[in-house]
């Protein structure tokens, strides 16, 4: 008899303890759980967010779903019908799960399932679920130089900004994937390239003749992949384009100088306008004075005045 009283006292103490800590036995309140608090889904594919009622006494509990994005809540299931962003795109499934027919990137958010049971001692419970929607990459933008010179450095670029999560990048040369580390491949052991899979950059420290060919880039994440059209990169022993440009520039400068010289010659800008002995007009010698030669450098009197 004494042992029975002690057992009852322990049971009452446990109930008091559970009540004070907020843990009510399942028979006295509503309790929710979910199969996954972090859910991933591919864009345009269906996904189900689970809200399982483990225990409840109320026959018709009030069920609500809220979408929380950037800290702002909004109803997606309210008063027994789908609302808000999920209207015409979802349905409620027993007991309180919500099925989204075709998820979009805008559905990435937190979702809160709330159940109110007025006949239960613990009449309310909620559970929070995070939904992340994967987005397939679009065709990346690739930049491949048309021609490079042997021994020089160059970089090929690849960029895609639609995919979620952010894609990883891979490069292909003549339809063969380039290994991340060329030293791990006998075929590319002597290559000097390096690939950044996060940014999509393909850098060559010293270009070789063997590096010529077609290149394309692929962006890939868990939702899928996309690639840009292949582009040709030619490798020359000498910089033919640079030499041609220099020759053209030299010829252009020569033609301009020749045209300027001809122009000034036609205008007579280079004709020397000076005095010479042949075209100098000496004054008439009718005054009886012998002026002498111009080269003597002084005046000489050779005639006498007659009075």
From TrEMBL:
Main location: other
Keyword terms, alphabetized: Cell junction, Cell membrane, Disulfide bond, Immunoglobulin domain, Membrane, Signal, Tight junction, Transmembrane, Transmembrane helix
Localization: Cell junction, Tight junction; Cell membrane
Gene3D superfamilies, alphabetized: Immunoglobulins (2.60.40.10)
Stretches assigned to the Ig-like domain: 25-130, 137-234
Signal peptide: 1-22
A GO biological process held by the record: cell migration
Record membrane topology: Single-pass type I membrane protein
Record-level Gene Ontology MF annotations: cell-cell adhesion mediator activity; integrin binding; protein heterodimerization activity; protein homodimerization activity
Record bears the keyword Transmembrane helix: yes
GO CC field: bicellular tight junction; cell-cell contact zone; plasma membrane; protein complex involved in cell adhesion
Pfam families documented for this protein: Ig_3
Transmembrane segments: 240-265
PANTHER family linked: JUNCTIONAL ADHESION MOLECULE 3A, JUNCTIONAL ADHESION MOLECULE C
Homology family: Belongs to the immunoglobulin superfamily.
Protein's UniProt name: Junctional adhesion molecule 3a
């Amino acid at each position: 008899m004494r042992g029975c009283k002690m057992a009852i006292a322990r049971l009452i103490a446990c109930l008091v303890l559970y009540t004070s800590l907020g843990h009510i036995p399942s028979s006295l309140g509503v309790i929710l759980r979910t199969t996954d608090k972090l859910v991933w889904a591919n864009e345009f594919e269906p996904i189900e967010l689970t809200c399982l009622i483990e225990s409840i006494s109320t026959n018709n509990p009030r069920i609500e779903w809220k979408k929380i994005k950037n800290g702002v809540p909004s109803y997606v299931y309210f008063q027994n019908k789908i609302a808000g962003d999920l209207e015409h795109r979802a349905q409620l499934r027993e007991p309180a799960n919500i099925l989204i027919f075709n998820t979009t990137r805008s559905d990435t958010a937190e979702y809160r399932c709330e159940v109110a049971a007025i006949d239960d001692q613990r009449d309310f419970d909620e559970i929070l679920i995070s939904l992340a929607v994967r987005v397939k990459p679009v065709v990346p933008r690739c930049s491949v130089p048309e021609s490079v010179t042997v021994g020089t450095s160059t970089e090929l670029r690849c960029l895609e900004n639609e995919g979620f999560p952010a894609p990883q990048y891979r490069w292909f040369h003549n339809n063969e994937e380039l290994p991340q580390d060329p030293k791990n491949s006998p075929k590319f052991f002597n290559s000097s390239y390096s690939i950044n899979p996060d940014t999509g950059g393909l850098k060559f420290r010293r270009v070789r003749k063997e590096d010529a060919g077609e290149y394309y880039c692929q962006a890939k994440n868990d939702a899928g992949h996309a690639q840009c059209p292949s582009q040709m990169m030619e490798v020359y022993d000498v910089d033919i384009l640079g030499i041609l440009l220099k020759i053209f520039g030299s010829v252009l400068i020569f033609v301009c100088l020749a045209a300027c010289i001809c122009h000034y010659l036609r205008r007579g800008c280079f004709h020397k306008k000076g005095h010479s002995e042949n075209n100098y007009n000496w004054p008439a010698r009718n005054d009886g004075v012998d002026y002498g030669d111009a080269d003597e450098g002084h005046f000489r009197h050779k005639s006498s005045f007659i009075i």
